[in-house]
Design goal:
The model has no long low-confidence stretch (mean pLDDT 87). The chain has a four-stranded antiparallel sheet with strand order 1-2-3-6. Strands 4-5 form a two-stranded antiparallel sheet. The protein starts with a helix and ends with a helix. It contains six helices and six strands. It is an alpha+beta fold. Helix 1 runs parallel beside helix 4.
Amino acid sequence: MIDLIKIEKELKVKLPDFFVKFHLEKNNLIKELINDSFELILYSDSDIIITTNKNLFKIPTDKGMFRNKICIGEDGCGNYSFISTINNDKRVFFLDHDIAGELFNEEKYELDWENEKLQKHKSIGDYLKYHI
């Protein structure tokens, strides 16, 4: 089972309630899906979440392109999924590396997370239904 407290402690971030609830309530589903090569879509290993966020994206941060975001998964092709750590925004943002450059605002040094080209899902459940 994923160690949510370890993630919060190591990344110095408060995980959104909906994310915590999903992992607590859907633990058996997550275990079942992992056996079907699900791991990349939604990380289920605390150390992978911590390492990916710290080393690859330099998260957590309150500025820059990944401001107030945390990476929760990937598809194995260089595309990553993020959730917001503020305002209890339950959406999952799927950042396709092919369009990431188009979403980047150099002046502000941030991504346009509301851009219509960015794939957004209203919940983790919708995100999983789409990608599985």
